[in-house]
Design goal:
Blueprint (H helix, E strand, L loop, with lengths): L3 E7 L2 H8 L10 H5 L1 H8 L3 H10 L3 E6 L9 H21 L4 E3 L1 E2 L5 H13 L6 E4 L1 E2 L2 E2 L6 H10 L3 E4 L5 H7 L5 H8 L4 H16 L1 H4 L5 E3 L1 H4 L5 H11 L5 H8 E3 L7 H11 L20 H6 L5 H17 L4
Parallel strand pairs: 1-2, 2-3, 4-5, 5-8, 8-9, 9-10
Antiparallel strand pairs: 6-7
Helix pairs in contact: 5-6, 6-7
Length: 329
Amino acid sequence: MRFIGLEEHFVTAEILQAWRALDPRWQDLAQPASATGETGRRLLELGPERFAAMAQTGLDVQVLSLTAPGVQNLRPAEAVALQTATNDQLAAAVRAHPDRLQGLATLATPNPAAAAQELERAVTKLGLNGALVFGRTRERSLDDPYFWPIFEAAAALNCPLYLHPQSPPLAVRAAYYTGFGEAVDTVFATHGLGWHYETGVQLLRLLLSGVFDRFPTLQIIVGHWGEVVLFYVERVQQLATLKQLAQPLAEYVRRNVYVTPSGMLSRRYLRWATEVVGLERLLFSTDYPFEPAALHGARHFLAEAPLSAVDQEKIACGNWDRLCAGIRR
């Protein structure tokens, strides 16, 4: 059984330099972890050490994507230049190790037209399998019609977009995630909780904006077992009713959303996600190199889950292989 991880990250030296030059108000809390220390070193490496870590956890293939905060807070011209350079580097790594690596493109959302063109190039020319995006570009949320050219391109290519967490806006962080000391505040606003609320809200904004009515075949992947939304599908249905969407909210979730664990190896969450979206919409991921639990035997988590061998294989690789087979190259 092949194990494919969908949220496995890397970074480039050029991206790190661009982050350091950003105005502090546009810098993300994820930057220090992605740019320094052992994690930062691992993100830059796309060779033997990464493959050894994959062997340790039982992962056969990493689907690489640029780590948070990506290029979405950069100036448009800089973001456009870096999306091209980053995707070229990613494609080169995939070509060098086609049996071990795949890729999700970086998109310069500050220039949606250029991002849409780059998505087409990344999929049809570079062989990448979609793109990873974040919920906001500076102060503008992804559901804004300004960004819809990106959704149009993804729907035309039939390729997925991975909606990844980013830090909440400064005002939200100040209002809800401070007062406990810098270390606690940072974790509270990021992987402790803030990232997941932020991304769940962005997913709901996409649903409520009518993106999936305008692009009914668009496929969005979210990590961390659905970024909280799966636990409140029935509760937030009232929003879909008030907005008079064409379908019940649960129908959009089961038709347009795929879910990965992002290294959170919880059987309870696995059971809940299976009930809400179905086995056909579960994918696998370890969130390399950020999730320590997934670095030691992620394969065992799925192999020992109360699922048939057929269902285990769907999550491990089958659902992703099927999704990629439908991409229009």
